[in-house]
Specification:
glutathione-dependent formaldehyde- activating enzyme (gfa), 7-stranded mixed β-sheet, 2 helices, binds zinc ion
Length: 145
């Protein structure tokens, strides 16, 4: 079974074979990148997702990651770390059937806004709770203003 989605103008479309690691990220960078209060993302290994129309543009939001979007309509479409084995994440709201990707984890709790309450039964953690993540992110430089 494949899952499809795309931007609001239809210029960028994708198809993915699996939906892995559906999560909300409350970190400041995800807030800024989406213009929303958090990012809702679901991923697939890069060989299990393909762009079926025009590929998205990407903004190198930091020294470690790129964020996909549609230049024509502005829809934030996803996120990936630069490593070849990293998953490509897409924004859950850009799926044709976002109901297929229920949020299973929450991250970036250090920046979770106090008036955001949803998925109260879904476990969440601060970015610094995972030592491996801390090490990975330690030398990151942000390109966000
Ligand atoms: Zn578009
Ligand atoms: Zn984030």
């Amino acid at each position: 079974m494949s899952h499809t989605g795309g931007c609001q103008c239809g210029r960028v479309r994708y198809e993915m074979e699996v939906l892995e690691q559906a999560h909300a990220c409350h970190c400041r960078m995800c807030q800024k990148a989406t213009g929303g209060l958090f990012a809702a993302l679901v991923g697939a290994p890069k060989d299990k997702i393909r762009w079926t129309a025009t590929p998205p543009e990407e903004f190198q939001s930091s020294s470690l990651a790129r964020r996909a979007f549609c230049q024509a309509c502005g829809t934030p479409l996803g996120f990936t770390y630069d490593q070849p084995d990293a998953r490509q994440y897409v924004t859950i709201g850009s799926l044709d059937h976002p109901e297929d990707a229920p949020i299973q984890r929450q991250y970036g709790f250090e920046s979770k806004l106090p008036f955001v309450s949803f998925c109260e039964d879904v476990p969440g953690e601060r970015t610094d709770a995972d030592p491996a993540a801390g090490e990975f992110l330690a030398n990151m430089t942000s390109n966000q203003a």
